[in-house]
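Sharing a chain and its predicted structure for anyone who wants a worked example. Both blocks are below, sequence first, tokens second.
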Amino acid sequence: MLKIRDLQKTFNPGTINAKTALDGLYLELKDGDFVTVIGGNGAGKSTLLNAVAGVWKPDFGTIEIDGVDVTHMPEYKRAQFLGRVFQDPMMGTAPDMEIAENLSIAERRGTKRRFVRGVRRADRERYREILAELELGLEDRLSTKVGLLSGGQRQAVTLLMATLNRPKLLLLDEHTAALDPKTAAKVLELTDRIVRRDKLTTLMITHNMKDAIAHGNRLIMMHAGRVIVDVSGEEKKNLTVEQLLALFNQASGGGAVNDRMVLN
């Protein structure tokens, strides 16, 4: 579902501020893979997601989604393949619009634009049923502006919006980092449920090593713009945080782990 070949990206090339964020990265995700991505600050995790989403154009290399070469495809055209949830609960939604209106916009992503009469009654009923599955009481708040929701409620709505059309690839960019632990656990539970139900191919960045181990069927560690650890299956299931730390230190020469990862 995702094939990345020799991906390279350097910011501010040719200056004293030059920074190589991706250094010949190779990565493949099979259909239905749920891959957690972990690594220290500056490892290239967010640059990887932005490159896949089309925010940055790589200096070299190729990106394919479901067999389609999207390396030079504009960001807005990639929307038909992707769903994305950001770290900031304020992103990914229109805060001054109702929950129902946000869901309607998300559902029409990638389709031809035309004028229609608001949100149809049939759509509202369907959105109510979908929201009820979140078990957050939002099914009775379809007319509430998204900007009035709590961070956790908003992130749950954003997750729903990102997966409404069952994207080829779901990108989760530390989507629970700004939430309190209890709310973060709830959003991760929803994430697991939706990914498993719809069999979504997913790439999830996290700084939390426990979450990286507990979620998904595969875990990769990035350092200096490359994948340095890649574990899956039973090996991943049986990992402990201590073993993961040891793997990271061995593969990176001791420079991959930072305080944020340890504290999480």
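Comments welcome. The chain has two domains: 2-81+167-263, 96-165.
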